[in-house]
Amino acid sequence: MLRGIILLLLLGFSYSAPDISVPVGSNFMLTCPGDPDEDFLFPSYTWTFTSEGGKDVQLNSTEPELQFTPVELRHTGLYTCVIKFQSSYGLVKMKRRFNLQVQEIPAFAKWWVVIVPEGSTALLPCHPVFQPGTNTSDTTARWSKGEKGFTELKIMEKSQSSDEEKGSKTAASRISWASKADVDDWSIEITDVRQEDADLYHCGVKVGSKKEMVLVELIVEPPPPPRCLNQTQPWEACPDPENRSWKATVGESVTAFSVHLYNKLRGSHHGQNLLVSPISIAGLLSHLLLGARGDTRTQLEKALYLPTDFSCLHSVMKEMREETKESMLMANQMFFNPNHALGEAFVNQSLEFYETVPKKLTNSSEENVKMINDWVQRKTQNKIKKLVESMDSSTEFALLNAVHFIGKWKSSFEEKSKDGEFMTLSGELVSVPILYSSKFTLATTYISKLKAQVAKFPLTGKSSLYVMVPNAASESALRMLEENLDENNVQAMVKEVNKVIPVSAEVTLPKTKLTTNMDLATLLRKMGVTGLFDSPNLCAMFPGEEPVELTDGRHQAYLSLTEQGVEAAAASSVSFSRSFNTFSAMQPFVFIVWSEQTACPLFMGRVVNPEKEARRERKKERGREKHGSKETE
Fold first, then answer.
1. Cβ(48)–Cβ(13) under 8 Å?
2. pLDDT tens digit sequence for 116-150
3. Which of 109, 374, 441, 533 is 20 to 30 Å from 367 by CA-CA measure?
4. pLDDT tens-digit profile of 310-361?
5. CA 330 to CA 283: how far, in whole Å?
6. Where in the chain is the domain with CATH 2.60.40.10?
7. Where does 134-190 show beta strands of DSSP type E?
8. Please, where in the chain does CATH 2.30.39.10 lie?
9. Topology (CATH level 3) of domain 112-129+138-221
10. SS3 for 215?
11. pTM of the predicted model, to two decimals?
C-alpha cells in the first residue's frame, strides 16, 4: 500500500500553463497528450475551462484535442486537460494547462504616400468617398499635419458658390487648391517643397454631420549630389611604372579583345573578306577610358579585357606607341564644342599619355567634317580619306584614332607580275595577281588546335604577318579555324611558330588589298559597352555638365600585300607540327599582323575572294601602261 501511495505522489504532476495568442476568427486546436514516450494504457481525457472571471466549467469533450472553429473572444481563458491512464506501475494522472488569449484583428491604417524632390511642387490628394446621393455642394475641408496629435495647418472652405480660406497665412503661403473646378476635389499643392514639409497630413472633409478622412504622407527627398561629385580627379598614378609585367598584361588584354572583336564581326560578314584593326579601336577606347568613371569605366575595362581598376593602361599605351613608331604611326585626336569646357585633368593627361591637344569644333557641320577627315587623311598617309560623311549639329565631342603601318618583307618576292588561281569557298577558281618566290625564308608549321597550316612572314619593325590556311578550301574548314581562334590558341600559335627554325620555301600569296568601313557604335553595343549610349559617366572629361551620349562611331581599315611588304591603315572614331617546303595561300585564309614588341595583334582579317580587288588592280595597271607612267599606291 505504501508503494502505491508513493507512486501516486511521484507520478501525479502537471505542466505550467503556456501563453497562447490567437487572432479572433481563426481555426485553432489545443492538444493534450504530453511526452510521446509515456506508456499510456486506457487513457481518458477531461477538459476544464476557467474564464477570465474565475469560474470553472467542465467541458463535454473527452477527446485529446479541443477544436475552436472559429476562435471567438469568449474563448479567452485557462484550459486544463487531465489525462488518466494505467501504467506498468499502476494508475497515473497527468495535467496540462493552456492560457489562451484571443486578440482582435486590428484594422489597417491606410494612407497615400507622395514622394517628391526638394524644391519641387507636391500634390497631396484628397478625394473622400461619400454615400451616393450625398449633397457635397456645401463642404468644409480641414487640413492639418503631424503624425502624433495633428497640428492645425489651415482650414479651407470650398463650395460651389465661393472659395474661402482661413488659418495661418504663413503656413498657407505655399499651399493652394490643386483644382478649383471640381467641388469634390480637396487636393492641395505645396510649392517649393522643403525638408520641414515632410510629415503625415490629415484631410478631414465634413458634409453636414458626415465626415471622411484621408491621410497623406509626404516624403521629401534631398536634392541629389552633383552628378560628378568626387569623380573629376585625374587618372590615378601607375605604381612601379618600370614593372614589365604591366606591358604583358596589356598585351594579353589587347589579344583577348582582338579575338573577341573578330568573332563579333565574322558572323555579320559571312562569306566576305574581312579586315579590322583591333589596336586602333583599343587605342580609341583606352583614350575614352581616361575620361570615364564609375560604371562606365568598369564597363570599358571589361570590354577591353583589362583587370578592374588597372591604373597602368595609359602609361603602357604610351610606351607601346613609342616602341612601334619605326613601323607604325598611331595617333589620337579630339574635337570639342568650346561652349562646354573639358576637364582640366583630362586635357593634361591626354597630352601626357596620348600627345593630344583638343581642337575646337565650329558652328558649321561641313567644316567639322572636313577638319576631321583632313586629320585622318594626313595620319594614314592618304589611305583613308573620308572617315565621316556628316556630323550632327548637336555633336559636342569627337574622339579619333588613326593607325598607319608599313612592314617590308625581310625576304623578297619576284618583281615580275604573275597570275595564279585562287579557289573560293564555292570551289570556283578565279585568276588573281600573285606574290611568288621560289626561295622565301619563313617559319611554317601545322597547328593542330587551329586545324590549319600557319606561316610566319617576318617584317621590318619587329612585326610579322601570320597566315593561317585551313585544311580545305571549304566553308566548314574556315569556320572551324575561326571558331578555334581564341586568345589562348593565338598566344600558343605565336609561341609554337617562334620555336620553328625558318627555312627556304616556295611561297605563293594572292596580291591583296582590303578595305573596310564599319559602324563602330553598333559593334560596341554587341560587345556589351551599352553604357556609352545612356548617360555615360564621363565626368573626368565633362565635369559638372549634363551627360553626353555616344551617337555615332566609325572604323575604317586598309591593308595591302604587295611585292614590297604589308601596308595597312586604320581610323576609328566615336562621337561621342610538321614542316613544309612550300606554302600556298591560294584559298580562303585568316591573317594577323602581329607586333613582336607589344605582343598583340595590330590587324586581323580574312581573305575569301581577292578577285574583285584583282580586277581593280589590273585596270589600274593597264591605265599606267597606256599612259606610260608609274603610279605609286
1. no
2. 999 999 999 988 877 766 666 677 778 888 865 44
3. 533
4. 999 999 999 999 998 888 889 999 988 888 888 999 999 999 999 999 999 9
5. 8
6. 2-103, 112-129+138-221
7. 138-145, 151-159, 163-166, 175-177, 188-190
8. 418-513+579-627
9. Immunoglobulin-like (2.60.40)
10. strand
11. 0.69
